[in-house]
Design a protein that fits this description.
By secondary structure, the protein is an all-alpha fold. 80% of the residues lie in helices and 0% in strands. Helix 1 (12-43) runs antiparallel to helix 4. It is globular and about 55 Å long. The chain starts with 11 loop residues before the first helix and ends in a 9-residue tail after the last helix.
Length: 419
């Protein structure tokens, strides 16, 4: 780790955002952990775990297009404040529901769907606004990598705290802590000093702007490939996380704390990977790193799936987390450093659709497959898919390099052999 690891912290606005969001994300992961545990405890059904993931993320898939257009058309800061307040209200409603004790699993799932709708507008606004928070745009990749470290550190800390709180104090405290955590992020946003947003004229309708975003992506092969690969990973690999309660309770014969430990170890691996990315100096081939880490992701998952030893399973869970982190962070970095500013919100909405939209469908798929072939074989199959996608990344890299070498020759231009 070196000084450049924290270059983005030179920007006051980013420091405020990082601090507030870090606190809020710990609460978010506490709530996610509590929801998974409550759903499985009520139903003892792997399919219902998949359904709960579907409910929390599929609305983001349906409405992220509108969220992207909104991020490009309107003041992103005001939109982010609105989504954070709405998320806080959702957390308060979940807390109240659990506190009164008279609830069924469908009510928890319905409120998770409400949060998914809010996230459809939150993610494009929040990711686009990071660009405006850093004073030097050269620090943007570092800021995005630090964002990932923040997310994964919260994934490390949040589930572990949630597991202990669930055992000692109950689920109401988990949900209540998340509601209170939004005070930090809303307060940090209000303390920022962002440049005054320019008033934008909206002479095009929303559907035309959606079409513009889709056309832009289709005509930019590097962005299109990244989004397609992220879609496949989100659909067929990332939903392995819905099976973690099964590993904790049925395979390793543990409790809520066991669930929290496994989830936290995955977060530890992801956090380590994010810090590694933040420490990279400019000039590294992120596409190659993404390909390698996708193979690490798949290999770790395959070994974890049937590992009978709990300590060794935790080790390979951490390796899995390390590889998993790149799918989100590097994909986001490649998109944000390539996309035109006027298209940023819409392109990020497609990125959000790939990440949030495919996972819920994958959650249903994984839940159904696990009922048929078993949890461990399902997770092993997901790891195999990740290995295949990693090989596709290398194939795309090789073809892109060949194209860069041959294309200038056809035009009788000097050859640039740099990747």
């Amino acid at each position: 780790m070196n000084i450049s690891t924290f270059n983005a912290f030179k920007s006051r606005n980013y420091r405020l955002y990082f601090t507030g969001q870090s606190i809020s994300l710990v609460g978010t992961w506490m709530q996610k952990t509590a929801v998974s545990w409550v759903v499985y405890d009520l139903t003892h059904s792997e399919f219902m775990l998949g359904l709960s993931l579907f409910a929390s993320m599929f609305p983001s898939f349906l409405f992220s297009f509108l969220g992207g257009v909104a991020a490009d058309r309107y003041n992103r800061f005001n939109l982010l404040i609105a989504t954070q307040v709405a998320s806080m209200i959702q957390a308060v409603l979940v807390t109240a529901l659990v506190f009164w004790g008279h609830y069924v699993v469908w009510e928890i799932i319905a409120l998770s769907a409400v949060l998914g709708f809010i996230n459809a507008f939150d993610v494009p606004a929040r990711q686009s606004l990071v660009y405006e928070m850093v004073n030097s745009k050269a620090d943007l990749p570092n800021a995005l990598a630090l964002n990932s470290s923040m997310v994964n550190l919260s994934r490390l800390v949040g589930p572990g705290i949630a597991g202990l709180v669930l055992e000692k104090f109950g689920d109401t405290v988990c949900f209540g802590a998340n509601a209170l955590s939004f005070i930090a992020v809303i307060g940090s946003l209000l303390m920022m000093r962002l440049p005054k947003a320019e008033t934008k004229k909206h002479d095009k309708n929303i559907f035309f702007e959606l079409k513009e975003g889709f056309t832009y992506i289709n005509n930019t092969p590097s962005i299109k490939f990244v989004i397609i690969m992220l879609s496949l990973i989100s659909l067929m690999v990332l939903p392995f996380s819905t099976m973690i309660p099964v590993y904790a309770k049925d395979i390793f014969k543990g409790t809520a704390s066991t669930f929290g430990v496994i989830d936290s170890v995955i977060g530890l691996g992801a956090f380590s990977g994010a810090i590694y990315l933040a420490s990279l100096k400019p000039g590294h081939n992120l596409k190659k790193i993404l390909a390698i880490n996708t193979l690490i992701f798949g290999g770790g998952l395959v070994i974890f799936s049937h590992m009978p030893s709990y300590p060794l399973a935790l080790l390979f869970a951490a390796i899995t987390g390390f590889g998993m982190m790149s799918q989100i962070t590097i994909s986001n970095t490649l998109i944000q450093t390539t996309v035109s500013p006027e298209m940023r919100g819409r392109v990020i909405s497609f990125y959000a659709m790939a990440f949030f939209g495919m996972q819920p469908l994958g959650g249903l798929l994984v839940g159904a497959v696990s009922q048929w072939i078993g949890t461990q074989d399902t997770v092993m199959l997901e790891g195999g898919v990740a290995l295949l996608i990693g090989l596709l990344h290398f194939r795309f890299l090789r073809r892109s390099k060949l194209k860069k070498v041959t294309q200038p020759t056809l035009e009788q231009q000097p050859i640039n052999t740099l990747a």
